[in-house]
Design goal:
The chain has eleven helices and seven strands. Helix content is 41%, strand content 12%. Strand 4, helix 4 and strand 5 form a beta-alpha-beta unit. By secondary structure, it is an alpha/beta fold.
């Protein structure tokens, strides 16, 4: 994929054994990871004596190894299109990350970045943690399922954990077009092995077999006081956009919970707060709830 920037926040006590990866959401910018831009989670976790790894970029990637560069109708990026319009659909024909080359995020996170952190900083390469929001929550579970030698803990905040449910692929299609003009069909063909491999509902037995410690969370879709305290235009945006997205994430997360309970899982903590929409207020609060359990299950 070419050079990928990652930001490293060192544990307060200087240890190199306790490591967690923080994954971004669908609109991950190329400047900094959203967790750094929007929250104080790096400070929170370094105070828990955890080294925090924040990879930067990967918009709409689901942190997966894609089938092909993102394109529509087989046409390569033309350079024609518009940015800054508020809709990623206008960027569908532009080049950029994952369009002029194929996304290989899973390989990067579980091989190249892991090895670089071990070789350059002495970071432990096993019993790491990984967590993320929305797209990053789904990806955290995928990484833990298929790389148990690296990850002993995975957290999903407002993740889409039942992506093969009716209507979910088309919902993801619309979201990825809006978030940078990406084509879900380039990520994984519909309903094939690659798509099913990405579905936490499908690979749930693997998470149980690995005995991965899981933190599974979703808000209620009800705005918090923090949301309501914003200036009216911002509050309206949080509610109009964030409430339906969180309701969908909650439905997916509840379905995953039922699946895990049916399988007799004993390795999961569930968190369903009374308030929270699809926004950083919700996810920062969830990180505070998760931190003690994360600390106890890595390193």
């Amino acid at each position: 994929m070419g050079p990928i920037k990652s930001r490293i926040f060192r544990a307060k006590d200087g240890n190199t054994d306790r490591v967690v990866y923080a994954l971004d959401g669908l609109r991950a910018p190329e400047t900094l990871n959203g967790w750094e831009i929007e929250t104080n989670v790096a400070q929170l976790l370094t105070d828990w004596n955890i080294n925090v790894v924040m990879p930067v970029g990967g918009q709409s990637s689901f942190y997966a190894d894609w089938n092909a560069p993102s394109s529509f109708f087989g046409a390569p990026p033309s350079g024609s299109g518009a940015v800054g319009t508020g809709s990623g659909a206008t960027e569908a024909l532009l080049g950029g990350p994952g369009k002029s080359y194929r996304y290989d995020w899973e390989t990067f996170l579980t091989s190249q970045l892991r090895d670089a952190l071990r070789d350059r900083l002495g970071f432990r390469a096993d019993r790491n943690g990984v967590f993320g929001l929305s797209m990053g929550g789904s990806a955290a579970l995928t990484l833990a399922a298929y790389h148990p030698g690296q990850f002993s803990f995975a957290g999903s905040f407002s993740g889409y954990l039942n992506i093969s449910a009716p209507g979910m692929r088309e919902s993801i299609r619309a979201a990825m077009i809006d978030a940078g003009g990406y084509n879900v069909d380039s990520m994984a063909p519909p309903w094939g092995p690659q798509w099913l491999r990405m579905d936490p509902f499908v690979f749930a037995p693997q998470l149980i077999a690995n005995n991965t410690r899981l933190w599974i969370a979703a808000g209620s879709g009800v705005p918090s006081q923090q949301d309501l305290g914003l200036p009216l235009p911002a509050a309206t945006d949080h509610i109009v956009r964030g409430a339906p997205l969180e309701a969908l994430a909650l439905a997916n997360t509840r379905a995953f919970q039922v699946r895990m309970m049916t399988l007799g899982a004993q390795n999961v903590v569930y968190s369903f707060p009374d308030v929270g929409v699809h926004d950083w207020f919700n996810w920062q609060d969830e990180a505070y709830r998760m931190a003690p359990d994360l600390s106890a299950n890595i390193g």
